[in-house]
Amino acid sequence: MKALHIKGGRVIDPGNGIDAVRDVYLADGKVVASLPADAEVIDATGKVVTPGLIDIHVHLREPGRSDKETIETGTRCAARGGFTTVVCMPNTTPAADNTGTIAFIKQRAAEAACVNVYPTGAITKDLKGEELAPIGSLKRAGVVAITDDGHCVQNNELMRRAVEYARMFELPVMDHCQDYNVVADGVVHEGHWSAALGLRGWPALGEDLIVARNVLIAETTDWWVHCQHLSSARSVQLLREAKQRGVKITGEACPHHFVLTDECVKTYDTNFKMNPPLRSERDRAAIVEGLADGTIEIICSDHAPHCNYEKEVEFDVAPFGILGLETELALSLELVRKNVLTLPALIEKFTTNPAKLVRLNKGTLGVGADADVTIIDLDCEWTYDVTASASKSRNSPFHGRQLRGKAVRTIVGGVTKFE
Amino acid sequence: MKTWQRKDLLGIQDLSADEINFLLDSALAFKQVGERTVKKVPSLRGKTVINLFIEPSTRTRTSFELAAKRLSADVINITASASSLVKGETLKDTALNLQALNADIIVIRHSAAGAPHFLGKFLKASVVNAGDGAHEHPTQALLDAFTIREKKGRIAGLKVTILGDILYSRVARSNVWLLTKLGAEVTLAGPSTLVPRVFEELGCRVTHNIDEALRDADVINLLRIQHERQRKTMFPSTGEYTAMFGLNKERFSRMKPDSFIMHPGPINRGVEIDSDLADGNRSVILEQVTNGLAVRMAVLFLCSGGQFSES
Amino acid sequence: MSTSPLMDSATINRALTRMAHEIVERNSDPTGLALVGIRTHGVPLAQRLAGLIAGILKQTIPTGELDIAMHRDDLAIRGTPVVGISKIDFDVTGKTIVLVDDVLFTGRTIRAALDEIADFGRPQRIQLAVLIDRGHRELPIRPDYVGKNVPTALAERVKVRLTETDAKDEVVVER
Questions:
Q1: CB contact under 8 A, C121 and B1
Q2: Would you call C82 and B1 a contact, using CB atoms and an 8 Å cutoff?
Q3: Domains held by chain C: number
């Protein structure tokens, strides 16, 4: 592996409080303090150099649905999007509720992944919300968090015990916040467009109730609960108030929830069907506000590939979810141009904040850190063409969208994986 | 007068007031056909109409079938149980197969909102929406408007109340779009769980007070209450519905003397409507059925020609 | 586009008067006689002829209107027409129906009208009266009563205007 000399870029390293033009040196898979001998020079003049970006919410579909995505193709999307580390969700087939599946994911990642892959384990067996999964063994097998993502533990007693138990292993508990009784068979945000389109409503209340519960459970257990893909205004407010009291609760948001609203579903295009659903402009603005004031400290994609034939169906029947890794950074940079966030504050949500939640020695360019680096051209204007995606699937609502800002080089462990 | 340019009738929401009026005017001519010795015209001779009913319906399907036959089209009915959909074929594949059989018009009824719009995106054949989930039922709204116009001579300025399960009703939505486009004032009424305030954003009034809903109405359109098909949390029972919102003689006596009752059918006697009122001389329920045939003939006729008018 | 006049109000009236007499002569028993105009211009022409015949016979002649849009054979070629209502308030069965139209051209309109009349019942016989016969028949149809025979080129258009619909009486050729 050749040493790298990333020269002349604007280095943004929020963990170390750095935002300055300087050089970065990589050798033997680590960030090093001084220019190594025989280093390859990468001219980053005019570009932004950041710690490798981290996405803690992706679905790689392996094992079980490698027709939608594989660890290989999913991580290629990540590299193209500027991500050097992804955390994958446990709703595979079989579910990642056992050490064998975790071992399989790690093995496939070692063989085929082009970025770092960290698995999560299930909270409950087969994600059914009935009995606890072997959380301690999952930790030993290498999971960085537990979650039933795609599902939500409805039984409050079970959830309380899961958090209490996970605390023993210092595993954060991530939750897909959805009250099944309130949401029932909803497919779009309950509001103007569900009324106009005759689609069954997925009310914000269904998310808010579980976020409120999670706040109380985190407070009771004094342990970290992380609310996934927040979409509603009241969720953000609940989180904001809880954090002010010092509750160990965190939240994440996906670009589609701060870029799009439920009006997008008016043509019944199933590429706008996701869970939680696109919400009202008021909710969208509240997510942006939550990102701005730090209530929501992490941005992730919820990258959820589905085959064309699965999405080309009646809206009610289509699976929830969209691709996200390749468009995530560019869509998030809109927040910087709109002065919602400074560039360092945005990069924090892709680096130090997610690394801290899942306890990885990543998200920093400090000496000795893993040599994961993303080089970004802020001014690159491009159009997203999903037909050229690295994903096996094509379900993006952002196909054809004009974007600005793009990762131009993704370096994982000192090796360039995308440029 | 502007003629019809559309190949599909997906909903009322995308239609202009001119298009709606043109359709209603055309339906007048087709109503007259039903009064002839030979109740059939050769307009769609050689055309194939497929009634693709993914959700069971006897009334609407019969009406479309008869409409197509009176236009001399060949008609095939495919119902959910008989179709290959239950075997796991997607709707898209089913529709493409029907198109491969040279179907000219596909009339679709589906429990999923937006299903006709989905078909319209890729089919060359005309797509006519015969009811999609809780979204739209355009021919029902057209026949309702046709009936109101026949009775009152106009639609603009009339006060129309739609009473019942609005939340799950495609009839309500299509009626709201149509009547407001033509200048009527629409009030939606029923239990608060089935008539959420958000419907005010569609341009109508919402009330949960039955007396207020009926007081000034020129037309009362009653919707069928299907407790068994709703989430059980929506209201206690049909008995309570009848007590709170059913149209009984006492309530009806306080309505304007020249007002009349409509219902898309099938009616639940004694539930949303008093049995005698349903049969009374201010009920136009059966005239709606007759007019439905005329409206559907007009729709099939116009959509059939519409697809060629661009060439 | 140039326009040349063919008939004015006086010549139209003369032609109609002659046609009214011919209709009476041809139909010795006037009790079963009825006139049906084809929309749009056939309708006022039928009413005028009925008025003239009534003046000759001293009895009223029933009239009706036909809209042949639903019976057209060119829906696929010309797109959606505006459909109007056919109004025949008498029983056509057993009657002698005189179909009335303004211009006889390909004959397709008359073919459609014949089909449509049959949907109302079974007339004893059907005759055809037209103000202008411009030739170029595409079907084996010939008129029984003609106001004026006008040889035309295919590309030309014969326009009939009547006071009832167009504020003045005239027939012109546009080319």
A1: no
A2: yes
A3: 1
Query: Which residues in chain A have Cβ-Cβ distances shorter than 8 Å to B170?
Result: 198
Order of strands across the sheet with C170-174? C3-8, C170-174, C157-161
Residue A356 contacts by C-beta under 8 Å, 6 or more apart in sequence?
A363
- DSSP β-ladder status, B205-207 and B185-189: parallel
CA distance C13 to chain B (A): 31
Neighbours of B86 (CB within 10 A): 10
Q: What is the pLDDT of residues A252-280, one digit of tens each?
A: 999 999 999 999 999 999 999 999 999 99
Query: Residue C100 pairs with which residues in a beta bridge?
Result: C37, C129
Contacts of C86 in chain B (CB under 8 A): 29, 32
Which residue from B minimizes the CA distance to C72? B43
Measured between CB atoms, which of B13, B114, B196 is closest to A314?
B114
pTM of the predicted model as reported, rounded to 2 decimal places? 0.91
Instruction: Give the number of residues written for chain C.
Output: 175
**Separation CA A411–CA A25 (nearest Å):** 12
Catalytic residue among A13, A302, A370, A372: A302
Query: From the candidates C75, C88, C117, which should be mutated to test the interface with B, based on the most B CB atoms within 10 A?
Result: C75
**What is the residue range of C142's domain?**
3-174
Verify whether residue A67 is a known catalytic residue: no
Residue A309, burial from CB neighbour count under 10 angstroms (0-12, 13-18, 19+): exposed
Which of 3.40.50.720, 3.20.20.140, 3.30.450.150, 3.40.50.11440 would CATH assign to domain A52-360?
A: 3.20.20.140
Contact between residue A409 and residue A418 where contact means Cβ atoms under 8 Å apart: yes
Q: What is the DSSP string of C13-81?
A: HHHHHHHHHHHHHH-S-GGGEEEEEETTTHHHHHHHHHHHHHHHHTS---EEEE--GGG-S-HHHH-PP
CATH of residue C127: 3.40.50.2020
* Structure confidence at residue B81 (pLDDT): 59
Report the run of H or E that residue B159 belongs to, with start and end: strand B159-163
Put simply, the answer to whether A200 touches B134 (Cβ < 8 Å) is yes
Structure confidence by residue, pLDDT tens digits, A347-369: 999 999 999 999 999 999 999 99
Between residues A390 and C81, which one has the greater pLDDT? Answer: A390
Q: Which two three-digit tokens encode residue C38?
A: 């084809």
Q: Look up the ipTM and state it.
A: 0.92
Subunit partners of chain B (3 or more CB pairs within 8 A): A, C
Minimum distance, in Å, between the CA of residue C3 and any CA atom of chain B: 26
| Residue in B91, B173, B201 nearest the CB of A198 | B173
The tens-digit pLDDT sequence of chain B (311 residues) is 457 889 999 999 999 999 999 999 999 999 999 988 889 999 899 999 999 999 888 899 999 999 999 999 999 999 875 445 556 788 999 999 999 999 999 999 999 999 999 999 999 999 999 999 999 999 999 999 999 999 999 999 999 999 999 999 999 999 999 999 999 999 999 999 999 999 999 999 999 999 999 999 999 999 988 766 666 788 888 899 999 999 999 999 999 999 999 999 999 999 999 999 999 999 999 999 999 999 999 999 999 874 333 32
Task: State the greatest distance between any 2 C-alpha atoms of chain B, in Å, as a whole number.
Answer: 58
The H-or-E segment that residue A217 falls in is helix A205-221
| pLDDT under 70: residue ranges of chain C | 74-81
| Extents of the domains making up chain A | 52-360
Is C119 touching B (CB cutoff 8 A)? yes
CB contact under 8 A, B308 and C79: yes
Contact list in B for residue C70 (CB cut-off 8 A) is: 29-30, 33, 41-43, 71, 301
User: pLDDT class for A1, splitting at 50, 70, 90?
Assistant: confident
Nearest-by-Cβ selection for A191 from B13, B170, B198? B198
How far apart (Å, rounded) are the C-alpha atoms in residues B65 and A278? 40
